[in-house]
Amino acid sequence: MNEADIPPETPSENPPDLAEIGAQLERTNELLQRMLAEVAKTPSTHAIFVDAGYVYAAAGLLVAGTEDRRSFDLDAEGLIEAFIDKARIIFADSRLLRVYWYDGARRRIHTSEQQSIAELPDVKVRLGNLNANNQQKGVDSLIRTDLESLARHRAISDAALVGGDEDLVSAVEAAQGYGARVHLWGIEAGEGRNQAEPLLWEVDSQRTFDLDFCKPYVTRRPVTTYEHEGEPPPSRDQVRFVGAQIAATWLSERGLAAMMDLLPGHPYLPGPVDQDLLIEAEKLLQRSLRGHALLRRALRDGFWQHLQAQY
């Protein structure tokens, strides 16, 4: 091939317009600046997630010396307001989305106390179930669902979690996976810890509320005493009969499934059930059974005999 046969190089048909490229870059930069300015103006948002079972147990033990809810009153409205005020200080440049209050109830039906809490502004009550032993079921999964959903939709940037159960670790990890920061709040323990170590390891920060913080919101109920000076105590047969009466009521309220849960533990009753049995018996008898080991045994015998008769 001769040199004359080689076609000359031709310039590109559409040479780049440097001025136009520069203008596009300038417009893109301006758009980014506007977006950043809008983000800067958008306030961050926080929410407070309260495991009520943990609060009752920890605050009751710290202030009243007992975890039994029937032995003290908790000013939930005052405590929630105190949590909100504390969050307002900690998250100074953030606004509150709402407070989530997680508790248990039989058949997930609100108690009168839970209804009054649900009516508070900026508070949402979420209910798990209560089993035959008065243990909460499903509360941890509710917390995880809410935490994960709000973090995924960028509805919150910070979550204050009041609780201590190790099962909450997955909820913390889920929220953090979407960029939210999770701050664990707890109540001072008299001895040791009342929050699981794996939970403490996973959160972004920790804060503990002491006796002075909790004391205004917990009031111990007066102990009911029954005085019958000079009268003999009830007979074992009387007490056994009362135990059977209470078992009949217990069974009608909770059903056969709850009874089947109890039967493998015979002759022992779970602590909460045994405490309920004693309190109800003392009301019916109008006599204290504290310190009467034989009568309390007769009470349990009557309770068990009625249940086993239904099996």
Give the topology, please.
Elements (H helix, E strand, L loop, with lengths): L17 H24 L2 E8 H13 L7 E3 L1 H15 L3 E12 L6 H7 L4 E8 L5 E2 L1 H14 L5 E5 L6 H9 L3 E7 L9 H6 L2 E5 L1 H4 L3 E3 L15 H27 L8 H15 L7 H18 L1
Parallel strand pairs: 1-3, 1-6, 3-4, 6-7, 7-8
Antiparallel strand pairs: 2-9, 4-5
Helix pairs in contact: 5-6, 9-10, 9-11, 10-11
Give an overview in words.
The chain is an alpha/beta fold. It is built from 11 helices and 9 strands. The relative contact order is 0.11.
Summarize the model shown.
The chain has 311 residues and is an alpha/beta fold. It has helices at residues 18-41, 52-64, 76-90, 112-118, 139-152, 169-177, 197-202, 211-214, 236-262, 271-285, 293-310, and strands at 44-51, 72-74, 94-105, 123-130, 136-137, 158-162, 181-187, 205-209, 218-220. A seven-stranded mixed β-sheet has the order 5-4-3-1-6-7-8, sandwiched between helices.
Summary keywords:
single chain; 311 residues; alpha/beta; two-stranded antiparallel ribbon
Q: Mean of residue pLDDT?
A: 85
With strands numbered from the N-terminus, the spatial order across the biggest sheet is 5-4-3-1-6-7-8
The 3D shape can be described as: elongated
Uncertain stretches of 5 or more adjacent residues: none
Whole-Å distance between the termini?
Answer: 107 Å
The whole-angstrom Rg is 31 Å
What structural class results from the helix and strand content? Answer: alpha/beta
- Kindly estimate the percentage of residues that lie in beta strands according to DSSP: 15-25%
Task: Count helical runs.
Answer: 11
Bin the helical content. 40-55%
Q: Could you give the order of the helices and strands? A: HEHEHEHEEHEHEHEHEHHH
Question: Care to count the β-strands?
Answer: 9
The largest sheet is: 7 strands, mixed
